[in-house]
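Quick bug: (Mediterranean fruit fly) hypothetical protein output formatted oddly.
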Amino acid sequence: MSLRLFIFLFLLFFKAFLFLSPSLCFQMPTNEVTRLVKDAIDVGYRHIDCADVYGNQKDVGLAIEEKIKAGAVERKDLFITGKLWNTKHDPQLVCATCQNALNELKITYFDNYLIHWPTGFVDSEEKYPLDANGQTLFSNIDYVDTWRALEALVDAGLCRSIGLSNFNVEQIKRVFEVARIKPANLQIECHPYLNQSELIDFCRKCNIVVTAYSPLGSPHSPYNKPGTYKLLEHPLIVDLALSYKRAPALILLLYQIQRGNAVITMSTKREHMADNLNACSFELNETEMKRIDELNFNGRYNLMENAKGHPHHPFEY
Ligand SMILES: *[C@@H]1O[C@H](CO)[C@@H](O)[C@H](O)[C@H]1NC(C)=O
Ligand SMILES: *[C@@H]1O[C@H](CO)[C@@H](O)[C@H](O)[C@H]1NC(C)=O
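Here's what came back:
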């Protein structure tokens, strides 16, 4: 399993937040997305983390196509992740949904394809289909059945590996029980305020590679922000950054890498992108790692409140 690329690029464009909290929406013009992905490939990123719900796969696809045409990279050098959104959990919809994402990205296979959340919604063009009272419309499809449909994607050559995102231990166990092809990857929110040790230990035992999203504490996201300090401004992180003469972001990326996790981050500035790739140019010692670990307080930013009350909601509130 070649899921061993450590620095990943996370393209975040939560269209859903346009109507949920317009003032906080992190909006990026489409040609900007294309430029960012081209910059990322130029500076050396090889994993591009995509998802149907980000609503920008066509723009990402333009960048991939252009860079391959220009000979900057070959398809086999890229590691492209996709994610099946909640409204497409019906096994009947999975293949067409995946194929559509591939078409948008102008590629013929995913290196890695994930069930984005365990929580199925009814099939809809809306990412968050709502009833008349503004409540999200849940479906009763079991993610275990969705998993079987993902296995068929591997059989058909559309995906090299498949995995899960935002699943808890119990849910991963249920998938394991039925899986003919085991999950290769779990993508979860992970940073010093939410160190996820239990999930990570479990994944190690199951041979699942963990990918940490929001490793910087999601400084641009419209999520709730727990904690007195923004993670990037926490005195311990700032102190370590000063002592190593590195940006605070690099301390947080290296923290994940030294724990053996893959890590994805998002950057809108080419110089930050390039600098983040320097995360492996120094080392935190054991004492420093422990001090960072001690920041944990289960501080989760991404609560998926739209699926609150869903029988498959992965988190306890
Ligand atoms: C780790 O680095 C710190 C400086 O941040 C130093 O004070 C400490 O002695 C080092 N610990 C070990 C075990 O090397
Ligand atoms: C993670 O957080 C828990 C609970 O706060 C703590 O006991 C543990 O040492 C932390 N770090 C790791 C690597 O488990």
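Actually, after a second look the formatting is fine. Residues 195, 197, 293, 296 surround 2-acetamido-2-deoxy-beta-D-glucopyranose (ligand 2) (CB under 6 Å). Closing.
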